Amino acid sequence: MTRFKIIEVAGHKRRERRDFITAEFPLTVELNLRKVADLACTPRNLKDLVVGYLYTSGFINSLEDLLSLRIERSRHQAVAETRSPLSPVRSFRKKTRTQPGFFMKSENLFRLINRFQKVSAEYQRTGGTHSAALCSRNKILFFREDLGRHNALDKVIGAALLKKHDLSHKFILISSRIPSEILLKIVRSRISLIASLGAPTDRAIKIARRERITLIGFARGNRFNIYSSADRVKRDQRRSKT
């Protein structure tokens, strides 16, 4: 974050004040001597971002495929080398099914959603970031913010991979709406459930139903909508009997 002098206008009144603004950092990702992406991101957790991007885009199947990665901040570059060049489409198709056996209790979802909404310090100050979290059934394991929802998701997945966390039997919370591109990253990561504060698109719902991913939208307070694979969300039996 940085601070800028601004003019705040409210009705017929205006005042000068200093406001917190989210920092933007342009980053070019180079893989095996070839440019694969130009990203606009926040300047933190760049290694998480690049690892997550390479994984969810299908350039690597695991962290072991990554031979080297260096972040050159002064040149706004990330330079990576992998064992062998992979086609994102071909690599993506190798792993599309989620892990069986994962479920969540609705009361745990409500608790984690409420916790998630309170964690984002930068959003509360600037209003300029999206948030994503990787969670177990009972707690938030990794939390990241970024300018873009895709980046926030890639950062949280990259952080988990770098810490050698198994992504199966985990789920994602995200602050944004869910278009198909976000859902495809979830499929690629073999994550079984994603819950968003916003709405999914029709294509995202179709992909979630095809791949048996539990897709939740409008997750706020003690309510949410389930668009696919509702069997993974278990009701609190004690409350359902009252």
3D architecture notes:
The protein has helices at 46-56, 88-94, 106-119, 121-126, 149-162, 180-188, 202-211, 237-240; strands at 2-10, 13-21, 25-31, 34-41, 66-72, 77-82, 104-105, 130-135, 140-146, 171-174, 193-196, 214-220, 223-228, 233-234. With 242 residues, the protein is of the alpha/beta class. Helix 6 (180-188) runs parallel beside helix 7 (202-211). The model has no long low-confidence stretch (mean pLDDT 91).
What are the main properties of this structure?
8 helices; single chain; four-stranded mixed sheet; 31% helix; Ubiquitin-like (UB roll); 242 residues; six-stranded mixed sheet; Cytidine Deaminase, domain 2
Number of strands: 14
Instruction: State mean pLDDT (0 to 100 scale).
Output: 91
| End-to-end CA span | 48 Å
Task: Compute the number of structural domains.
Answer: 2
Number of helical stretches of at least 4 residues:
8
CATH topology group of the largest domain: Cytidine Deaminase, domain 2
Q: Major sheet: size, sense and barrel closure?
A: 6 strands, mixed
What is the CATH superfamily classification of the largest domain?
Answer: Cytidine Deaminase, domain 2
Query: What strand line-up does the widest sheet have?
Result: 9-8-10-11-12-13
**What gyration radius follows from the Cα positions, in whole Å?**
19 Å
Question: What is the level-2 CATH architecture name of the largest domain?
Answer: 3-Layer(aba) Sandwich
Kindly name the structural category: alpha/beta
Shape by Cα distribution: flat
Model regions low in confidence, pLDDT < 50 over at least 5 residues: none
**Proportion of residues in helical segments:** 25-40%
CATH class division of the largest domain: Alpha Beta
SSE pattern, N- to C-terminal: EEEEHEEHEHHEEHEHEHEEEH
Hey, roughly how much beta strand do the residues contain?
A: 25-35%
